[in-house]
Amino acid sequence: MTKSYSPVDYYPSSQEQVIGNIELIGQTPEAGITFSPEQSFGCMMYVLGDPVTGRHNKRHVLDMAGHVASMLLGYNHPALMSEDVSNELALAARCRFASGDFGTPFRGMLGPVFQRTVMRNYYTHSIFFTEGARAVECACKIGFYCRQDDVSLNLEKEGRWLTPQTGFHGRSVLALSLTKSYDLRKHHNMPVMDCVERVACPTIGERENPEDLRAREDEALYDIDQKMKALGERFIGFVMEPMLGEGGYQFYSARFLQELESLIRKYRGIFIIDEIQTAFACGRVFLHEAYDVTPDLVVFGKKFGMSGVLSTEQFTQNYPWHPLAKPESRVSSTWSGDPVADVRLRAMLEFLETSKVMQLSIGLGSLLRDGLERIRNSEVGRRMLSHVRGDGLLAAVDVSDAQTRSKLINACLENDLLVVGCGFRSIRFCPPITITQKEIALCLERFERAVRSLAA
Ligand SMILES: Cc1ncc(COP(=O)(O)O)c(C=O)c1O
């Protein structure tokens, strides 16, 4: 009989070993935290050490950052632990095939459940990649080809994408050109492409009077209309997130998004929505579905465990020959996703199809926001926190400035709670959607303790 070894028996298992070994190849994990995937479960990350509480402080930490909003079902979820799925994952991991060129049974098995749960009646075609930025660029490329066919001038030099003043779409050159985030390291001093121009798109302020919001939106919509009119045939399309993710978990109103869509249609642009941060977290597959808008192309990543682009039915009707609809087209990549991601996503989608976690995430999100609001309204909270907001399991709260935010994030880690920042001065909560009521209560308890410790 062969003896089975658990990876924890032979993996480097201390903060020092893990970081030391990673440093051998000239890399440093940015947060300085190391963890053991095998010993983590649910929303509990088994941390081997971190730079805040002492480097060797091994313990379970409640992970409300969900690997920067990219974790769908949490650590070691039972849907991925069965013998069948484990064997398939191992088989798929042996070689990374050129899945864009050759059909594998792994993608073949993913197809039906992906169609049923993600594409449904709304989307006709898809393409997979690994990273979000790559998928954003692919969507822009598709939009560019299609729009070029509509107009007589050469868009290569003169075409323009419009995008909100703030947004995050990734770190490759076009994605970076579309990006403007609080974290200047991500784009400062990088060359940007001329084909991107920015327009003001108001998000909902804290306790903002609807009349005031409407007035700000009308002004912005007027300016966008003027901008699109001036661009005329040079307008390729509009790229945006359905809410600002890295930019601070700020939300647009449904009315604004609908009016914006009307303008995009009026000027015949291509409408791309980047759902990389938002998919699956708000009780729906995609957040924009809640706003009753129909983009042409939707980009996904993070919680899918891979990235990709979907074309809507409307887009395929308008451009039946678009690159995703042709077996041989100019959009592709060698791996076109990953067989391991195919198996993992299939198992996760099959689980979502038979469980109510996605619907439950709406109520759990309210519980989280109500709790944050309660802390914000407490005596210490009133001094330190403002603007609790969110949708489903994407929530955020503001502090006064970036420095206070760093201190609060560290205080959370001292209280065994992992959170990350977004925007200029926000803290976000973006856990896996399998989080439980108990874990939310624990999160609120630890967050409150961290706030109090800072106020003391
Ligand atoms: C909305 C959005 N688009 C694109 C990206 C880039 O994804 P990736 O880092 O996988 O390239 C991100 C990453 O945070 C994102 O939030």
CATH class of the largest domain: Alpha Beta
What general outline do the C-alpha atoms trace? globular
| β-sheet strand percentage | 15-25%
Number of strands: 17
Question: How many strands, what sense, and barrel or not for the largest sheet?
Answer: 7 strands, mixed
CATH topology description of the largest domain = Aspartate Aminotransferase, domain 2
Helix content: 40-55%
Bound molecules: pyridoxal-5'-phosphate
Strand order in the largest sheet: 4-12-11-10-7-5-6
Class inferred from helices and paired strands: alpha/beta
Task: Look at the structure and name the CATH superfamily of the largest domain.
Answer: Type I PLP-dependent aspartate aminotransferase-like (Major domain)
CATH architecture of the largest domain: 3-Layer(aba) Sandwich
Low-confidence segments: none
Number of contiguous helices = 16
The average pLDDT value, as a whole number, equals 94
Gyration radius (Cα, Å) is 23 Å
Overall number of domains: 3
| Separation of the first and last Cα atoms | 59 Å
Describe the structure in brief.
The protein is α/β, with parallel strands linked by helices. It has 16 helices and 17 strands.
